[in-house]
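Hey, resending since the last one bounced:
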Amino acid sequence: MPLWLILIIIGVVLLILGLTGIAEFLLWIGVAVLVVSLVLALVRRAK
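The structure tokens again:
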């Protein structure tokens, strides 16, 4: 399972449990990792 997916799943679970501060942080990190991996994949494909 990709790292970004794991971070987003954990963030959503923590958000449901009421730990909004930690959950929001993990969600943002997951989205950032997803965006970076997509950009890197596009750069590699363009070469």
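The chain is about 90% helix and 0% strand.

Sorry for the duplicate.
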